[in-house]
Design brief:
Radius of gyration: 26 Å
Distance between the termini: 32 Å
């Protein structure tokens, strides 16, 4: 009996050693490039359709408001699958799950391009979001298993190009395709990429022993899906995404629909937490692995990743919108303002990937948030006379800070985490980034609308006929618009008066909008600066080169 026990113990030790030392047969960088292909297209699709909405609405005979469901449907289904990807991998294996996601993403993309009506397009976007939701977390987990801790920084640099650069170039690329070809091609371009990704994934990617072991154990015990937990997750995060996307449009809590989904969201998420803790207590596989939040090296980076998504997506929406509405830029020029920032991130990512293996990641994260915060302070000095070159370099400086955040934060989240939990880590960190991005976008839209109204209400008090300065200004401007200007007499009558008043109101509207943008920028600056003490609270982390292989 003792001999059998010793033999079993030796076998388990050998299996454990084999799992720790496992490496894929194919070249790791070939695997990294393969899984980045489809992920890049998926993240790109979260923003590429934004500028095409007027064309989609016109082509399919729908209103602009109805066409926004093309964006909302994708984001909602994406948010549901992201956190559940690790759970689903347990039953079918990561490679098979990734390939199913690629197939679903490719087929639904083709169907989106062929859609004859808006309802069918929305349905296809739901399927596309579901397929795309499993790609980014699966890629991140594949990279974490494929590369040693020493090499992860460089591998995550490639991954960072997909999830950080894609949202930045999405609107520009979408606008160019729509203007020069047809809006349907923003979906058709995904199809050949999906086919190539599927072929390479089948040839190069393989499941590590711990994944194969999980799948074997789940099959042995029979297929026991936690349908109740998955339903709570879907209603909770789906409702949250809907609220964030439609809140400003429907006047937030002034809408009974938003109130209903808020109650549903809170109820579902609170119930989900208790249900998942109960599943852990009875030794069942939970949909969400909440035990990860016990680790300071995961809980704090989770918050940091949320703030990164908030800042990245928020500024990516804010800057093009600001230059188009206040500076009169075309969509192409607005894209060119932020494109050099994307190039900066691409150039900086390999450098940051190299530094992660040589120094404490906390220093890099602190530097990134410092640059991000100071760039916002610098941007707070913008005026309506700012040049294209000035705004472009502001974005480049800002982007250089973003490059120092994504890789180190991702590296820290895997510190001390067993390989068997890599899928859980990737699913939750990607969820944090996506929800942060949705919050950032909703924050910009809400603050801009309400801030402009507030500033306009404050400034318009000084623009009445009873105000001497206003009277004098109208008198000066009348000369330019066909009237007789001057500083005396009644300037509120005569030719050119209405034109002069309209001009002043237009300037009032622009100034109030500019002040609203500056308010948003100042909040971003404070928010990013507050993250630096939080980074220090993580505690000392050894460079990846010295970290043990899990």
């Amino acid at each position: 009996m003792a001999t059998a026990t010793a033999s079993l113990s030796e076998q388990q030790a050998a299996e454990s050693l084999a799992e720790r030392n496992w490496r894929p047969r194919a070249n790791p960088w070939a695997i990294a490039l393969t899984v980045t292909l489809a992920t890049f297209m998926e993240v790109l699709d979260s923003s590429i359709a934004n500028v095409a909405l007027p064309h989609i609405a016109g082509s399919l005979g729908a209103s602009q408001d109805e066409a926004t469901w093309v964006l909302t449907s994708y984001l909602v289904s994406n948010a549901v699958i992201l956190p559940a990807s690790a759970y689903l991998t347990t039953f079918i294996g990561r490679k098979k799950f990734y390939m199913i996601c690629v197939v679903l993403f490719g087929i639904s993309s083709m169907l989106c391009g062929l859609a004859p009506s808006l309802p069918i397009l929305i349905l296809c976007r739901v399927l596309q979001g579901a397929g795309g939701g499993g790609l980014a977390p699966s890629e991140q987990a594949i990279l974490a298993d494929t590369f040693t801790p020493k090499q992860r920084g460089q591998a995550f640099a490639l991954y960072g190009l997909a999830v950080v650069v894609a949202p930045a170039i999405g609107p520009t690329l979408g606008g160019w395709i729509t203007d020069n070809y047809n809006w349907r091609w923003i979906f058709f371009i995904n199809v050949p990429i999906a086919i190539l990704s599927l072929f390479l994934t089948n040839r190069l990617v393989e499941d590590p022993p711990h994944i194969a072991k999980e799948v074997a154990e789940s099959k042995k015990g029979g297929l026991k899906l936690d349908l109740f937990g998955f339903g709570l997750l879907a209603s909770g995060f789906g409702s949250l995404e809907f609220i964030l996307d439609k809140g400003q449009e429907d006047d937030w809590f002034g809408s009974s629909v938003i109130v209903f989904f808020t109650i549903l969201c809170v109820t579902s998420l609170v119930t989900l937490i208790f249900w998942e803790l109960y599943q852990l207590r009875i030794k069942n596989r939970p949909v969400l692995n909440l035990t990860l939040f016990k680790r300071k090296t995961f809980a704090i980076p989770f918050v940091l990743m949320f703030v990164l998504g908030f800042s990245l997506y928020g500024t990516t929406v804010l800057i093009p919108q600001m230059v188009q509405t206040l500076y009169g830029y075309t969509a192409e020029l607005a894209g060119l303002v932020i494109s050099p920032g994307g190039v900066c991130i691409m150039l900086m990512m390999p450098v940051v990937g190299f530094l992660v293996g040589k120094t404490d990641p906390r220093y890099l994260i602190c530097y990134g948030f410092f640059i991000l915060s100071t760039s916002m302070i610098w941007m707070h000095g913008l005026t309506l006379e700012a040049s294209f070159k000035h705004i472009m370099w502001l974005r480049v400086y800002q982007a250089s800070g973003l490059a120092f955040l994504f890789i180190p934060i991702n590296t820290v989240t895997y510190t001390g985490v067993p390989r068997a939990q890599n899928n859980d880590v990737s699913g939750l960190t990607n969820l944090a980034r996506n929800i942060g991005g949705s919050v950032g976008t909703a924050f910009v839209a809400t603050m801009l609308s309400r801030g402009s109204q507030r500033h306009e209400a404050l400034m318009i008090r000084n623009l009445t006929p009873a105000t001497s300065n206003f009277n004098h200004m109208v008198g000066q401007l009348k000369g330019f618009f066909g009237g007789h200007g001057g500083s005396g007499g009644n300037n509120m009558t005569g030719p050119g008066t209405h034109t002069a008043q309209a001009y002043i109101y237009n300037q009032l509207h622009r100034q109030s909008a500019m002040l609203a943008y500056l308010d948003i920028i100042s909040i971003f600056a404070v928010f990013c600066a507050c993250m630096i003490p939080l980074v220090i609270a993580i505690g000392k982390i050894k460079p990846a080169a010295d970290a043990p292989v899990h």
